[in-house]
Amino acid sequence: MKSEKLPAMGKRIGFFFHSIRFRLVLWFAAILAIVLAAFSGFVYYRQSIDIQATAVYGLERKMALLNHTLTISSAGFSYPQGILQDTDVLILASSDGQVVASHGPIPTEDASALASRAIQEHAEHGNPPDGYVTWSQGALKPKANYLFVSVPLETPFGWNGLVILGSPLDPTGSHASLIFTLVAGSLLTLAIALLGGFWLADRAMRPVHTITQTARTIGETDLNRRLNMKTKDELGELANTFDAMLGRLQAAFERQRQFVADASHELRTPLTIVNLETSRVLANRRTPEEYQQALAVVHSENDFMSSLVNDLLTLARMDAGQTVVEKVPVDLSDVAVETIERLTPLSNRNGVKLETGELPEVRILGDRKYLNQMISNLVENGIKYTTGEDKHVRIETGRSNGNAWVRVSDSGPGIAPEHLPHLFDRFYRIDKSRTREDSGDGNHPTPGGSGLGLSIVQWIARVHEGDIHVESTVGVGTSFEARFKAI
């Protein structure tokens, strides 16, 4: 069991180190560390300048007091009590760098080195107006950084030299305390920031975990689940987008299932008719007329299935984006005239008169083949469903408000208002109890519409960046109008 848990634990650890949560916290900690380092460096720098300025000011005040109270004799020097501290250094040096007298916690060799250094500093700086030359010296034997100030000295004994006064730069250890405080405070701040960052990152990424788990549990048959996140932030927007995508997928799958079911139903009817007719004529010997009638039925059903399969193939290609639409300047009136000439025999056979209204030249960018198919489908629908004594279908084109339009009207029975919103749905039929038209002999149906023609019309209109509208009045007729941007 332990050998099985180790790989799983290693996998979880590896996932954690590659997770967005870890990277967010790491970047946050790195940026915070840089900011803390810069801030600590600035504080340390400013504090160092202040400490040095304070030390220089105090040292120069002491030197000013000594100038007025220092007494030099052949035996050395003397000064009042209370001016110097135990850690202060006072050196009296001749002009050649020899130590005449010294005071403070400093060995003789260090005093000589300081005297030489003071002579060198005065030579480099010349003679300042106030005579003060200040410099700092690294750790001496007392292991402390000292600050020194020196001034020229004239004595009544015939020799000139320098008075050198030194004090610890940081006698209270402020530098060390400040470094400890800054380092400890920065580390504590980083630790708190890391813990808080992990907590915030975990809380912020929790909706992502919810989205991931939901996505894993959703399948093709369970697309009705939703995240329903109510937050208004970016993750809430992501969840809403995910819900919208699921809705589109669910609608697409439902359309696919309905499409397959409707196609199966449409194909089952002609196949059943063909099977019944062939079984009937094969059961016994028939007359030539009966064989001919059966073959006519089979031929009619074959035409219907061929038309249905072609429409299905067209829609499948449209849905898959495999249809190439080549848009060139096209005159809608020319396309309308071509449609009239091609469908006139069909209209004459059905006793329907094809009429033309005004057909002015209206040019659009479109594919002539698909525009011809769109108008043909509308005209064929009009021919098929037109009734009454004066059966006619009217075609006209025009231009208005920068748009070109083509209108196909018929004198059919009209369509009830509740059916109009669904006319362009695939396989939608107004009379669902009838899927075929009567042949006229009362025995067999003839091929009717597949319920796909208007869906193809709508797709053609949309792919040409246009739209199609329908108006219908029961008992008067129906009018379809497709509008496109004119050129």
In summary, what is this structure?
The protein is built from nine helices and 16 strands. The chain has 487 residues and is an alpha+beta fold.
Walk me through the structure.
By secondary structure, the protein is α+β, with helices and mostly antiparallel strands. The chain folds into four domains: 2-47 and 176-215, no CATH class; 72-170, 2-Layer Sandwich (Beta-Lactamase); 218-323, Helix Hairpins; 325-487, Heat Shock Protein 90, CATH 3.30.565. It has helices at 2-17, 20-69, 108-125, 174-217, 234-283, 288-320, 332-349, 368-385, 453-463; strands spanning 71-73, 76-78, 89-94, 99-103, 133-137, 146-154, 160-168, 328-331, 353-356, 363-366, 392-400, 403-410, 437-438, 445-446, 467-473, 477-485. A five-stranded antiparallel β-sheet has the order 4-3-7-6-5, with helices on both faces. The longest helix is centred in the first third of the chain and has 50 residues, at 20-69. The model is unreliable at 432-447 (pLDDT under 50).
Which CATH architecture of the largest domain? 2-Layer Sandwich
What name does CATH use for the topology of the largest domain?
Heat Shock Protein 90
Strand order in space, largest sheet: 4-3-7-6-5
Structural class: alpha+beta
**Radius of gyration over all CA atoms, rounded:** 51 Å
Give the domain tally.
4
Q: Roughly how much helix do the residues carry, as a percent range?
A: 40-55%
CATH class of the largest domain: Alpha Beta
Low-confidence stretches: 432-447
* Estimated share of beta-strand residues: 15-25%
The largest sheet, given as strand count, sense and whether it forms a barrel, is: 5 strands, antiparallel
Summed over residues and divided by their number, the pLDDT gives a mean of 82
Assembly type: single chain
Count all strands and give the number. 16
Give, in order, the helices and strands: HHEEEEHEEEHHHEHEEHEEEEHEE
Could you name the CATH homologous superfamily of the largest domain? Histidine kinase-like ATPase, C-terminal domain
